Amino acid sequence: MKQIISNCYLTRKMIAEISLWEKKYPRNQKASIVIPGLHIIQQNNNGYLTMELMKSLANYLGLPFTIVYELATFYSMYNLEPVGKNIINICTNISCLLNGADDIVKFVEKKLSTPVGETSKDGKFTIKTVECQGACCGAPMLELNRVFYEKLDFDKVEKILDGIK
Amino acid sequence: MTNKVCLRTLSLSKPRSLDTYLSIGGYSSLINILSNRIPPSEIIQQIKNSGLRGRGGAGFPTGTKWGFISRDFCTQKYVVCNSDEGEPGTCKDREILRNNPHQIIEGMAIAGYVMSATIGYNYVRAEYYEPIDIFEAALLEAQEAGFIGKNIRNSGIDFELYCSIGAGSYVCGEETALLNSLEGKKGFPRLKPPFPATNGLYGCPTNVNNTETYASVPVILQYGSDWFSKLGYDKKSGTKIFCISGHVNKPIIVEVGLGIPFQNLLAMAGGVKEGFNVKAVIPGGSSSKILSSSDLKDLKMNYEDLSLAGSMLGSGGVVVLSERTCMVKILTRIVSFYHEESCGQCTPCREGTGWMLKILNKILENKAKKSDVDNLVRIACNIEGNTICALGEAVAWPVQSYIEKFKNEFYAKIKS
Predict the structure, then answer these.
(1) Which residues of A fall within a CB distance of 8 Å from B244?
(2) Residue ranges of A 96-155 with Cβ closer than 8 A to chain B
(3) Widest Cα–Cα separation across chain B
(4) Of A116, A150, B53, B365, which residue is the least packed, with the fewest Cβ within 10 Å?
(5) Which is the CATH superfamily of the domain at A86-162?
(6) Distance between CA atoms of B185 and B173, rounded to whole angstroms?
(7) Over the stretch B111-148, which tens digit does the pLDDT of each residue have?
């Protein structure tokens, strides 16, 4: 493991997880580690990335900061602002739309008194709509804490949301 | 006769485990190849004879593609699997990853041997949390059992295989964008030529295939190309996984012979919801041209017939729309998807998708003029063929075909 450089905001846990990815790519291709690295950092930092953490990753990998920032802004799964403790990703693409995704979105918005794209006042939930998640035969679907919930109806959604602490 | 190839473990208990896979002859193709040093040209010939074509959407003959990489070329080569499944209506690769991961591994290891590539990556979209965990676990199993890694079964052949992830970008499903993403760059598709076979990952010769394509290979070699090709309804093109979703009673992911009549597929999915009639069908993912009910009567689901019908087989994502569907709303949703996912590299796609979305929203709000509908088609035609990757066509084709087939619905929303 590399020595932790000064001004490095990466935690030991982050570095340990990132170093597993370093083994997958050629030694001179550090940029390949940025995408998984950002996922790891985000997951260990309450679901979002900060400038300090992105700079730290660039330093750790010996890459210009622009490479890291470019990827963090290009790919849609990275959050550059604080998010709720739980992010609800509701698919609204075609198969889900045909099976009532719009109503599921409205139901979640009402239930949590929070509009899509925003975080509930208690900081517990952020509601997002997302593009096709590849669960078209289980439409409508949502993803919450890395789990796909499929063939949704209002009862199911209610139970899922009530089950979150 | 369903689920005979990529989904053949589905009916077994513990479908994803190594033991189950071994019990049906899994890894026997790889071991046979390595222990008998079957010449790569022979394997390529078998793949060609099987009629296997790229299952990601483009349908390029797999055997021919494998032949593009020179085996003698003394440099690092790579095999890459495209599990960045994101075409709306498509959910088949997820099913293979979750239920038959070892067959993908075996297929990639065989490809590695054929092209003398010693490193492979399976690029899986990051939203596939469960499939990624399952694939990683299968990699460990395969490693421990000695089917991948250094000096596989004392053959002197090395093949290291890793799972890689994306971060939420549809365009990374395009093979050169995927390679850029693997290299740690934005998912910008590259100009071709040069093709990945000569300048792929890290500038090295690289073979990229879809998950379903790799997973078909071990079974073809196990039972023979003849057996595989005859699984097709036309007795020559093998099997394909279809995902039938939308307005159907029982959405289903099923692997059947290519050339299956559309009506059979629809019956497998339990028919149209609530007893309505079919209004239209998206036959191969949201980018394929739409078919109206009159196109469906004797339609056979294979590459040739769908092309004759004016659309394409694509990824096998079949979305059924009932007679109560508003086509303007559906097209607006599809264009909004491509607008969101356009990487922004080519002006016609970056700007065109936005213009079309604005116009479609205007039509939906009954604020558009008749000339706006004509403009939509004009913009679509100016995108088609003028972009680096096929995302341009992927948005142009729906716009052109929805308006061609359902013009009255668009005109009905014009303000008088």
Answers:
(1) 137
(2) 97-99, 130-139, 143, 146-148
(3) 77
(4) B365
(5) Glutaredoxin (3.40.30.10)
(6) 14
(7) 999 999 999 999 999 999 999 999 999 999 999 999 99
